[in-house]
Amino acid sequence: MEKSWNNRAWFLVLPVLVLVAFSAVVPLMTVVNYAFQDTFGNNEFFWAGTEWFEQVLDSSRFWEAMARNLAFSAIILLIEVPLGILIALNMPKSGWGVPVCLVLMALPLLIPWNVVGTIWQVFGRSDIGLLGYTLNQLGVDYNYTRDTTDAWATVIVMDVWHWTSLVVLLCYAGLVSIPDAYYQAAKIDGASRWAVFRFIQLPKMNRVLLIAVLLRFMDSFMIYTEPFVVTGGGPGNATTFLSIDLVKMALGQFDLGPAAAMSLVYFLIILLLSWVFYTVMTNVGVERSNQSGGH
Amino acid sequence: MARIDLDHIRHSYMANPQKPADYALKEVHTSFEDGGAYALLGPSGCGKTTLLNIISGLLRASEGCLLFDGHDVNGLSTQERNIAQVFQFPVVYDTMTVYDNLAFPLRNRGLAEPDVDRRVREILEMIDLASWSKRKARGLTADQKQKISLGRGLVRADVNAILFDEPLTVIDPHMKWVLRSQLKQLHRRFGTTMVYVTHDQTEALTFAERVVVMFEGEVVQIGTPDELFERPRHTFVGYFIGSPGMNVLPIRLEGNRAQLGSQAIALPDAPATSSAKTELGIRPEYVRLGRAGMPARITKIEDIGRHRIVRLDLEGREIAAIAGEDEEIPAEPHVSFDPAGINLYADSWRLETGRIETARPMTGGGH
Asked: Which chain A positions have a beta carbon within 8 Å of B150's beta carbon?
């Protein structure tokens, strides 16, 4: 049968192209526009070259916020991934406990981000908040508006409370897909609980863990709403992450040029790190099957 | 190595079984002799795997007692029972090498590394994967993975029994034959008690010394392949074993005659039964075609090489007969039943009559 070749099929992707253009490319281009030019209003633009980028990359303010972001993401991943796996391992596999657990786990994910922030903002207040007041009554000097450590602890605990569920649900999905025969074989082979985890459960969770780590990294690296509502970036600049700093710069100080340059740098960093994560984690799997290779 | 006694074992997957239909395993009361090779044969869902899992301790029987060499093992875990089991579908530890997969059960039990190495190499040789030993198990073919599973079942030398749950389902036919003969060899060499679950009669009959036939959660017959063929205790065994299966015809018993429709069949004996449902079973091998006997109509002849299967209509019932390749098949055939091959059934269970039993060794004689 003769196949006729033409390029008309490209028209099929046109709607998507238009949509993406308006939702992503055009706004992004505006940012690019601001990043390389200077403006004093009146729609007058002057070429600025790489001036804004140099300014951003030279400022200690940017690098400090970046360091905070990296530290925050690292801590979040180190807590949420093992904790998520642990909870998923202990969730029931059948019976009435399954829907109960799933609903309980899904609840935090359903709450809007600024509401989560407000909940913890009130919860942690030392004058009226249940948590803050109780802690202070117990003799713990806890005040997230004054103390850097307290502020960080609050933001981290809040994020763990909000997002560990996501890791749990993903891991749980991976776990329930393991056929019973694997556990039976492990019993026959006399495997310990640890060996079952190490050689059966963990390998089977490989893929979902990749997704979980990627999602949690990107989300935590872009975190804005919750810490903004709770601490507003304070005390001082202690919890000012890149996104909070960006908003301060763009809307607070109306420095559109540096803010645009920073946005682009921020965007590229997230893109780069996600790519690194993805390549590393998928390569671990590929290397293994290449070794076993076969045909 | 151990003798396994199943003492009135019943099992239900329900919490509160009431009627017999609630039981996946109705009642099994039998023994597997030390060093025996047994096949559990039956259709899917007849309770074979349930019985196997009860022996290995993956399941605990709802009722009854399980003994290894006379010791009650009901309360013991799978590990403590020291049983090897091979499952229907391959289970391999993906992240380990082929070698480590086989070494896993030994290392878990704290065997010294030189002993582990010796056993693993022996098994690798046997399952023909020696050249693959350093490869990761991930990415192997289903065939190879199942060989690893099989190998893990065979690698421990000191097990009480090895249980196989349809282990060769995913293996290609030629390899199936090779592995099955290796299993038999292994059994002869080490004399480990082996229980082999299958729904394939050829597999069961070639592997085992004694075949346990199960049907709807019950053991319907235990016997040598020969016994299962000649004297099926239950009509199911008749259908299930042999190809084609036994002809089972509804009859009316009148003294030493069996009334089949308008035809009367002389019986060597006058069996007594009060049962309403009586049947006559005769294997196609014992149906004779000729010019004398009951008139029948041929519906189909299947030539399967060494012999032919003749399908006939006898008194409105379809029956099968086996005819030799060169045997002449009359145009207007009459059939007769060789008395040696006649079995009578009441409510699907075989009527034990002394006459027929004694007739058994002398084919065609005894009347």
From this structure: none
8 Å CB contact of B95 and A187: no
Q: Look up the CATH number of domain B4-230.
A: 3.40.50.300
What are the φ/ψ torsions at residue B312 (nearest 5 degrees)? -130, 160
C-alpha pair distances (Å), A22 with each of A18, A257, B334: 6, 22, 88
CATH architecture of B247-359: Beta Barrel (2.40)
Q: Both tokens of residue A92?
A: 């029931």
In whole angstroms, give the CA distance from residue B279 to residue B250.
4
* B26-31 contacts, C-beta under 8 A, 24 or more apart: B26/B216, B26/B217, B26/B218, B27/B64, B27/B218, B28/B64, B28/B218, B28/B219, B29/B64, B30/B6, B30/B212, B30/B219, B30/B222, B31/B3, B31/B4, B31/B5, B31/B6
Please give, rounded to a whole number of angstroms, the shortest distance from the CA of B33 to a CA of chain A: 22
Is the CA virtual torsion A92, A96, A99, A102 positive or negative?
Answer: negative
Single-letter amino acid, residue B266:
A
Instruction: Please judge whether B108 and A191 are an interchain contact, meaning their C-beta atoms are less than 8 angstroms apart.
Output: yes
The dihedral sign for the CA sequence B295, B296, B302, B304: negative
C-alpha B20/C-alpha B216 separation (Å) is 11
For chain A, give the number of residues: 295
d(CA B36, CA A158): 64
Task: Report the DSSP beta bridge partners of residue B67.
Answer: B5, B72
In the DSSP assignment, the letter for residue B22 is G
Cα B141 to Cα B88: distance, rounded to the nearest angstrom: 15
As for the ipTM of the complex, it is 0.76
Q: Is B40 exposed, middle or buried (0-12, 13-18, 19+ CB in 10 A)?
A: buried
Coil, helix or strand for B28?
Answer: strand
For residue B137, list chain A residues with Cβ-Cβ distance below 8 A.
292
**Pairwise CB contact (< 8 Å): B152 & A185:** yes
CA distance B241 to B257: 27
**CB contact A6 to B (< 8 Å):** no
Looking at the complex, does the CB of residue A179 fall below 8 Å from at least one CB of chain B? Answer: yes
Helix (H) or strand (E) holding A78: helix A60-90
* Domain positions in chain B: 4-230, 247-359
Is B146 touching A (CB cutoff 8 A)? no
CA–CA gap between residue A212 and residue A79 (Å, rounded): 13
Closest in B93, B139, B149 to A200, CB measured: B93
- Shared fold status for B4-230 and B247-359: no
Q: Please check whether residue B301 touches A, CB under 8 A.
A: no
Residues contacting B271, CB < 8 A, separation 6+: B253, B344, B351, B353
Q: What is the pLDDT along chain B (367 residues), one digit of tens a residue?
A: 688 888 888 888 888 888 878 888 888 888 888 888 899 988 888 888 888 889 988 888 888 888 888 888 888 888 888 889 998 888 899 888 899 999 999 998 888 889 899 989 988 988 888 888 888 888 888 888 888 998 998 888 888 889 998 888 878 888 888 888 888 888 888 888 899 998 888 888 888 888 999 888 888 898 888 888 889 999 999 988 888 889 998 888 887 888 888 888 888 777 777 777 888 899 999 998 888 888 888 888 888 888 889 999 888 888 999 888 888 888 888 888 888 888 888 888 888 764 444 333 333 333 3
Name the residue among B263, B223, B219 with its Cα closest to residue B6: B219
A67-241 is a CATH 1.10.3210.10 domain: no
